[in-house]
Specification:
The chain is α+β, with helices and mostly antiparallel strands. Helices cover about 50% and strands about 25% of the residues. The strands form 2 sheets. The chain has a 3-stranded antiparallel sheet. It has a two-stranded antiparallel ribbon with strand order 2-3. It is flat. It starts with a helix and ends with a helix. Pfam families: LPP20.
Amino acid sequence: MKSLAALSALLALGACDLQMSTSGGTAAVQDISSIKVALDAADVAVQKQTVLTIIGTGYGTISAQPARNINQKRLMAIRVARLDAMRELTEQIYGLRINSQTTVIDAVLQNDTTRASVDGTIRGARTLRINPVGSDTYEVVVELDRDMVARILEAVR
């Protein structure tokens, strides 16, 4: 879909060069308006493209949980894994904000700090599976179906 839009835009640009060289300024104005129409049509086509299901996977370690007994630790690890999976969904929908700072003194790297953050609302995520991975970790897989992704993206726009 995107490649079709890009091809249309390139064809319009090629026609613009040809028109400008043969017939002068008025043709250039007409060609610019035709390029704008082609790009607007491409935007509509991209917005209408089918949204796929988005899947997020998260992990939680049992031994790292602060509970007193093993069953509480397991439940807490599953909760951590689910939140990690939801964070991954949020990153896919809203994007990830990266803040980075590097300090170099006398051509030697002294400090390199990178921070990432994401902010968004996820609704309607389904838990597909909760699996133990090894003896100390849980994996949780969640998904958002295409209708819910489309609603979230529409709300963001």
